[in-house]
Amino acid sequence: PMPEHKAKVFVNARFEVIWEKLIEKIYHPEKYVQGIVDVQILEDEKDHVLRLIQFENRQWQALKELIVHQK
């Protein structure tokens, strides 16, 4: 089975603001996660994004992520 990660956080902000930031993090994780040097969007669909992340540490394997989002 594919590894899966889920998180739950309570935030005091309007939904639209939170959603905008989450979408931004999908497309630009390098702004939020140290060590990411490149992000390639392989698929960009209405309900999901498939991306390939390259890390600063070249000994690490590239990470392919399927992110399913639903507003």
Radius of gyration: 13 Å
Shape: globular
The biggest sheet amounts to:
3 strands, antiparallel
Q: Output the structural class.
A: alpha+beta
**How many H/I helices?**
1
> Which residues form runs of ≥5 with pLDDT under 50?
none
Helical coverage, percent range: 10-25%
> What's the arrangement of strands in the largest beta sheet?
1-2-3
Task: Summarize this entry quickly.
By secondary structure, this protein is of the alpha+beta class. It has one helix spanning 15-27; strands spanning 36-44, 48-55, 63-68.
Account of the protein in words:
With 71 residues, the protein is an alpha+beta fold. It is built from one helix and three strands. It has a three-stranded antiparallel beta sheet with strand order 1-2-3, with no helix packed on it. It is globular, with a radius of gyration of 13 Å. The chain starts with 14 loop residues before the first helix and ends with a strand.
Strand and helix layout:
Blueprint: H1 15-27, E1 36-44, E2 48-55, E3 63-68
Antiparallel strand pairs: 1-2, 2-3
Keywords:
alpha+beta, three-stranded antiparallel beta sheet, 3 strands, globular
